[in-house]
From TrEMBL:
Annotated InterPro entries: FANCC
Any one annotated GO CC term: Fanconi anaemia nuclear complex
Protein name: FANCC protein
BP term (GO), one: cellular response to oxidative stress
Pfam families given in the database record: Fanconi_C
Top-level taxonomic group: Eukaryota
């Protein structure tokens, strides 16, 4: 026989006859006979495994055509699978027969048959259904059925984990290393059992396992099933295992990102803290520390923004995600930290560095200067003759949109600080109207400047009425351009929040504007962003914070 093995055709026929004679060992005589032969049978199974583990499925079946019948019958004998390491050896033999890339209908059918046997061997539900048949054997060991199979699963998992981890550090020893097809087969038989708590160490080990090949060795069905179970919170995995899953399987990362978006769209946002909690719980901001994951997630967000016509909900989600990512990046060990260019490789790096600076890193007295610095760099980029296509313009706009915290601060600085207004107004005009086709951005600037000038004349008034703001409100509600409406609504909302006399008429005025312009969602998202920032800074006027909370309660019903 090949490779000098002691496995012979005669032995196969002998053990197949025995397996047929025993059946599922339901009689006392067959049980006694099985027990007498178990040590020799285990040795024979070990010989089979050692012989076929380097052959590949096709060659193994050609050399030992009876192997399928023998393994199939033994897998249903409770005395055989309950003896010492026989179950483990049966599983490894089945894994060796599994075709990682089936070429025809026969191999597909064989794979299906192997999966069903592996499921039978490890599925507690199937074992329990055979409790009447196995009770004699289990009770003889001093176990209850549940205890016995619990220990069996744990021992199997420990054995597989140990072998995979040892192989990970022994990759140069070709004879001892586990073949890629066997690792693939192990991942396949895990699929129906993924939610078993005892299987978690094996899932983690497989996800972190790399066999030194450029091609993925884990089955796509396994990776998809793990991702699905994780997203539905049916399993809990260490962060390192989840990150490895998303790095090695792009569809899982895409599904996780879309799952997060759908989850956020399906809930009512009462605060940005809730949004931040959901995003952080997804592990995506933490995983985005790896540049490849960050760029893919950002690309998905970008597509979602385009498909929803730039809705404020998606923009706010992107901004919170970016803040959480920056927080993770800031806290990372310097030795393991990637440079910013790895995350934003195609962007103007001085602008990236300016946007990445978190407001709390700078004194509040420096905010206005920093906003002007961002505006000046951005204007130079946008007016550069090399930025000619809409795609280039969108990429610049999206970068700015990701760091919307600075945009909200810019709008506040217009009213709260002595700033040079034109650069700040231009920055906000670009955000709300990035294209200047038919002078749209220019017209937006004109409208915004007029509203801003009117509001600044009223800013110090302690006693205001809705009539005092009539001209500003008319400019907001009377313009046809949506981008101009959103920009001027932003300015007017901030005026009502921060001016001494705005508090009294805030609810009435904002309600009127949102009714006339259909900007309820935009205003609501602005309010929760502002409340989120105030709650984290702890420096704002308590009267303003109270007004924000009142407005949020009122407008939550409208959106």
């Amino acid at each position: 026989m090949a490779q000098g093995t002691t496995v012979s055709k005669l032995n196969f026929e002998y053990w197949l006859d025995k397996a047929t004679e025993w059946g599922q060992a339901t009689t006392l005589e067959s049980q006694k006979d099985v027990c007498l032969h178990l040590p020799q049978l285990q040795e024979f199974l070990h010989q089979i495994y050692e012989t076929i583990k380097h052959l590949g499925p096709t060659v193994a079946i050609q050399q030992f055509p009876l192997i399928g019948q023998l393994l199939g019958r033994l897998c249903w004998n409770p005395f055989v699978i309950g003896y010492d390491e026989s179950q483990k050896t049966l599983m490894w033999c089945l894994c060796c027969l599994y075709s990682s890339e089936p070429q025809n209908a026969v191999e597909l059918k064989a794979n299906s048959w192997i999966r069903s046997l592996l499921c039978h061997l490890l599925s507690s539900s199937k074992w329990e259904s055979n409790e009447a048949e196995t009770s004699t054997f289990i009770s003889a060991l001093g176990y209850t059925s549940a205890d016995y199979y619990c220990h069996l699963v744990k021992n199997m998992v420990v054995s597989l984990v140990t072998e995979l981890r040892e192989n990970q550090f022994n990759g140069l020893n070709i004879q001892e290393s586990i073949s890629a097809s066997r690792v693939n087969a192990v991942s396949i038989f895990c699929v129906p059992l993924i939610t078993l708590p005892d299987l978690t160490p094996l899932l983690e080990t497989l996800l972190l396992y790399h066999g030194g090949l450029s091609k993925e060795i884990l089955s796509s069905e396994f990776l998809e099933a793990v991702n699905e179970a994780f997203l539905k919170k049916k399993i809990s995995l260490p962060e390192s295992a989840v990150f490895s899953l998303w790095l090695r399987h792009l569809p899982s990362l895409e599904k996780a990102t879309l799952h997060l978006l759908l989850q956020l769209f399906s809930i009512q946002w009462n605060s940005l803290e809730e949004v931040a909690h959901v995003i952080k719980d997804s592990l995506l901001p933490q995983a985005a520390s790896h540049p490849a994951i960050f760029r893919i997630v950002n690309e998905i967000f970008k597509n979602a923004l385009m498909e929803t016509d730039g809705t404020s909900e998606v923009t706010t989600i992107i901004q919170v995600f970016t803040q959480l990512f920056l927080q993770t990046h800031l806290n990372e060990n310097k030795q393991h930290k990637f440079p910013l260019k790895a995350y934003f490789p195609c962007h103007h790096q001085p602008l990236v560095r300016a946007l990445v600076r978190r407001p709390f890193e700078l004194p509040t007295t420096y905010w206005s200067q920093h906003v002007k610095h961002i505006s000046d760099m951005l204007k130079a980029l946008v007016e550069d003759t090399n930025v000619s296509s809409l795609t280039d313009l969108f990429e610049i706009w999206f970068l700015v949109a990701c760091f919307g915290e600075w945009l909200d601060i810019a709008a506040e600085q217009l009213l709260k600080s002595a700033v040079e207004p034109d650069p700040v107004l231009w920055l906000l005009a670009f955000y709300y109207c990035p294209q200047n086709e038919n002078q749209q951005r220019t017209q937006t600037m004109v409208e915004a400047q007029a509203v801003y000038s009117h509001l600044m004349m009223l800013f110090s008034c302690a006693d205001l009425s809705l009539k005092d703001l009539e001209a500003a409100v008319h400019r907001v509600t009377g313009v046809e351009q949506c981008c101009s409406q959103q920009f001027t609504t932003h300015l007017l909302t901030n005026f009502l929040l921060f001016s001494p006399g705005g508090h009294k008429i805030a609810q009435e005025c904002i309600y009127h504007i949102t009714e006339m312009t259909d900007t309820s969602k935009e205003v609501y998202n602005l309010l929760i962003r502002t409340a989120y920032r105030f709650n984290h800074s702890g420096k704002e006027n308590q009267r303003t914070v109270k007004l924000l909370n009142e407005l949020l309660q009122k407008f939550a019903l409208k959106v």
